[in-house]
């Protein structure tokens, strides 16, 4: 089975855990879009934070960039999107421990 770069990139970002919530950025639905340039092996990631003034925001952005760079040898840029996060963005089943779903 061949794994796409997008799948590989998303999988790498599962290592980035929001320290306040204890779930990774993919489970939380914080990764909103990926644009991959296969020719240059780069990616542009748009993500959001759980709150606009998340105290861990800079740390999470840096960790997403670092995790993505392990897959994309040309580097990764991370932009912050303007959407407001809500629990419905979480992966199915991820909110079970919180009693959300």
Give a structural overview.
Helix content is 22%, strand content 19%. The protein is α+β, with helices and mostly antiparallel strands. It has a 3-stranded mixed sheet with strand order 1-2-3, with helices on one face. Helix 2 (57-69) links the parallel strand 2 and strand 3. The longest helix has 13 residues, at 57-69.
Question: What's the helix and strand layout?
Answer:
Blueprint: H1 5-13, E1 31-37, E2 42-47, H2 57-69, E3 75-80
Parallel strand pairs: 2-3
Antiparallel strand pairs: 1-2
Global morphology = globular
Query: How many domains in all?
Result: 1
The counted number of beta strands is 3
Query: Could you tell me the mean pLDDT?
Result: 90
Q: Could you spell the SSE succession in H and E letters?
A: HEEHE
What is the CATH topology descriptor? Answer: GMP Synthetase, Chain A, domain 3
- Characterize the biggest β-sheet: 3 strands, mixed
Ranges where pLDDT stays below 50 over 5 or more residues in a row are none
Q: What would you call the structural class?
A: alpha+beta
| Radius of gyration, whole Å | 13 Å
- Helix amount: 10-25%
Strands of the biggest beta sheet: in what spatial order?
A: 1-2-3
- The CATH architecture assignment turns out to be 2-Layer Sandwich
DSSP helix count?
A: 2
Question: CATH homologous superfamily?
Answer: Fe-S cluster assembly (FSCA)
Give short descriptive properties of this protein.
alpha+beta, 2 helices, 19% strand, single chain, 3-stranded mixed sheet, GMP Synthetase, Chain A, domain 3, 101 residues
């Amino acid at each position: 089975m061949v794994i796409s770069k997008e799948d590989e990139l998303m999988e790498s970002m599962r290592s980035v855990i929001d320290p306040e919530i204890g779930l990774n950025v993919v489970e939380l639905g914080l990764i909103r879009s990926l644009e991959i340039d296969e020719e240059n092996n780069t990616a542009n990631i748009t993500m959001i934070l759980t709150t606009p003034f998340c105290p861990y925001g800079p740390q999470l952005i840096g960790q997403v960039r670092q995790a993505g760079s392990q897959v994309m040898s040309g580097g990764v840029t991370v932009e912050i999107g303007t959407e407001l996060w809500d629990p419905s963005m979480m992966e199915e089943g991820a909110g079970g421990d919180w009693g959300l779903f």
